[in-house]
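Think of the structure tokens as a kind of shorthand, similar to the way a musician reads notation: each symbol stands for something richer, in this case the local conformation of the backbone. In the example below we present two proteins back to back. Begin with the first one, reading the sequence and then the tokens, and try to describe in your own words what changes along the chain.
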Amino acid sequence: MKLRVLGCSGGIGARARTTSFLVDGDILIDAGTGVEDMTIDELAAVDHVFLTHSHLDHIAALPLVIDSVGALRSRPLVVHALPETIEALKTHIFNWVIWPDFTEIPHYERPWMVFEPLAVGQVVQVGDRYVRSLAANHTVPAVGFHLYHDKASLVFSGDTGPNDEFWRQVNAIQNLRYLIIETAFSNREQDLAMTAKHLFPIQLADELGKLQRDAQILITHLKPSDRVRIAQEIDAWAGRFAPRLLEGGDVIEF
């Protein structure tokens, strides 16, 4: 499998794009602003979108994706998400006020988009690849994802605070090769991080201490306004785990 980092920032700005990963050309993990750098042909080739949760930085491009390439597709785009996430999208985005409801366009029997509810722990098979939803601990219902095939696995935490159940699930993955985990705030913003249920470097180190697998640690979702400080603190507090900061354009093969 090949994962291309379209966006991995906790905000926007020059060269900063919010969370979105493209897997093998046909699967999107989240649909943040990084999706907007894809070509029309690339967008039209995406058949499945897996959403971690309903926050804007993870779904911002989804309405525009469907509007841009729906007419080019022969089948609906399938959006996989928790029921609560789907309800939020229906209520606040695809409501004919903010954006049209593409589950009814061009006709309810031939929609450009369909929703598929997910449950924590559920596995979705796409060809010879699998996507399993993992427990997350965020301010809204949320999941992470375990992407795998018969040879290797990658885990993405999604947005999350401390979460023992997540580590129980991750430590059971024998062929884990990569762990993408968020660290949104610096240590000086730890009160905000705990309120928002994001990690900060001291907490990241505590959480990584629960990992029992030998995997490459990749850090995502740093707030761009404080990126340098967060990076320095990650090195100071979690450097023993040899984490690497994700960059837009990175390609991870597993």
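Once you have a description of the first chain, move to the second and do the same.
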Amino acid sequence: MTETERIKYRNTLDYIKIVIGALIMASGLMFFLIPNKVSAGGVSGIATILYHVFQWPAGVTMLAMNIPLFILGVKVFGRKFGIKTLWGIIWISVFTDLIDVIFELPPATEDPILATVYGGVLLGVGLGVIMKGRGTTGGSDILARIMNKYFHFSLGHSFILVDTGIIIIMGVVFRNIDLILFCMISLVISSKVVDMLIEGITSEKAITIISGKWEMIARRIMEEVKRGVTSMGSVGLYTNKEKKTLYCVVSNRQIEHVRRIVKQEDAKAFVTVSNVSILQGEGFREQTTLNEE
């Protein structure tokens, strides 16, 4: 496969992922969230209000709000808000109204707790799949980035302000404080699910070992645990002695094996263990980073 063919194949796969993600998100919205007046914020939150107050189709409403935001995003940030964002916006709107208006499918539940949990999960899964396809859904994403650019809020704070503001408005409009609480739960669930999809459900561990017996420790890790080890020169400033710092990444189930090796070889060795979410390289799962080209 030539480089041009590889790029074309990858782009085609991205567009398919965005369509699948849009269908999952639309299912979460129309089978769980919107009929129960629950939202994770963003444009879908405003669409939920208009859906119940004026009976406006949620898909058309989201499209009508997202298109101006998309144009604004292109003007402010350039072509990074390109065709894939528009592709996602259109398909989410289409699938939402296909479920509700064309096929008139009923909600899966009228229990707000079940709607909050399952709707949040589906919303997170759909958004995660779209991000895997290097796309976005517009809406609050664009507003948050504009706040970051012109008002110097961090992106994290910008997302929280936009989504929380819309959720509070929903609670005021529907005169129900419980809805605010349900919406916040849905927002947290969807965010965590997105993180799990992007970073991976299982997390490897990075182990750092500082020991004078580094050579034996490294050899045993490579022979017994079957993981590569990197050594780096280091100096203990308290003792002013040169040592070697070992670094390796292992799976969760291999941590205790490595710690046992270190303890057997050097009980006074300094060891730290930290979480690793995104890995790429030989011997490990490959993760797709956001907006990777």
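Compare your description with these statements about the second chain. The chain has a mean pLDDT of 86.
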